Amino acid sequence: MSTLYLVGTPIGNLEDMTFRAVRILQEVDVIACEDTRVTGKLTHHYDIKTPLKSYHEHNKDKMTAVLVAMLEEGKSIALVSDAGLPLISDPGYELVTAVRDSGLSVVTVPGPNAALTALMTSGLSSYSFLFNGFLPRKESEKLAKLKLLMEQPHSILLYESPYRIKDTLTTIATVDEQRKVALARELTKRYEQVVTLPVGELLLKLEEDIPLKGEFVVVIDGQYDSIQQEQWWDALSLNAHVDHYIAAGQSSKDAIKQVAVDRGIKKREVYESFHIQS
């Protein structure tokens, strides 16, 4: 049966490739990837001869139809990103949706993830977290988003480029200069670095102690004030409580689930309130 495999690949250290991932990449008919040059280095290292096809943000609409047609012809395809897990702040969501809508098989082959690797190493709470990917580039929108995220009783996971990391840390400090933040760069590579400090202190270490090289993962400590954690939503209706989490970047499904957890009530009660009254 033809299958779309979602294959995790190393985020830096090539030794983090799994045996299963290598086998799947060898067995499929085509590997769909963001950049054939990047994935070509990986396939060359493991002597994988499977043809590569570009699938990225700028051609995904056209290539989704092409890849679904190949699957319908009986071929199997592996989707990979340049590093880590496909779909996580990378293209692929539209392809998975189209494949599932066509009644075809989708199988995930797990692998490394930069955000979770950073969280594990950071020393910040890993019991509950929100992944937000990349922040808006416009400063006013970035500030508004961070204010919402930093109200949450969860660790916040973000991606940032070396060119914008200083501005982003400055914006975080505008919201709360004492909030603990972990900066992780070059994860799993030779010069891996993870530094956790109040954000105001982190800013002083940029460039000299923390080089602006490599992609960054930012982990922001949650707002764990017990009164705020338990009562900040008391004045909100169920629907306004759900809308608060949606504005922070969660899907309606995840927001409804979180509201149910916050209030200690059944998810169906929140679901019916939100969808019947909204």
Describe the structure.
The strands form two sheets. Strands 3-2-4-1-5 form a five-stranded parallel β-sheet, sandwiched between helices. Helix 6 (139-149) links the parallel strand 6 (129-134) and strand 7 (155-160). The protein is built from twelve helices and ten strands. It has 278 residues and is of the alpha/beta class. The chain folds into three domains: 3-109, 3-Layer(aba) Sandwich (Cobalt-precorrin-4 Transmethylase, domain 1); 114-220, 2-Layer Sandwich (Methyltransferase, Cobalt-precorrin-4 Transmethylase, Domain 2), CATH 3.30.950; 233-277, no CATH class. The protein has helices at residues 19-27, 36-45, 60-72, 93-101, 114-122, 139-149, 165-175, 199-205, 226-231, 238-247, 252-263, 267-277; strands at 3-7, 30-33, 52-54, 77-79, 105-109, 129-134, 155-160, 180-185, 193-198, 216-220. It starts with a strand and ends with a helix. Keywords: Cytoplasm, Methyltransferase, rRNA processing, S-adenosyl-L-methionine, Transferase. One of its GO terms (molecular function) is rRNA (cytosine-2'-O-)-methyltransferase activity.
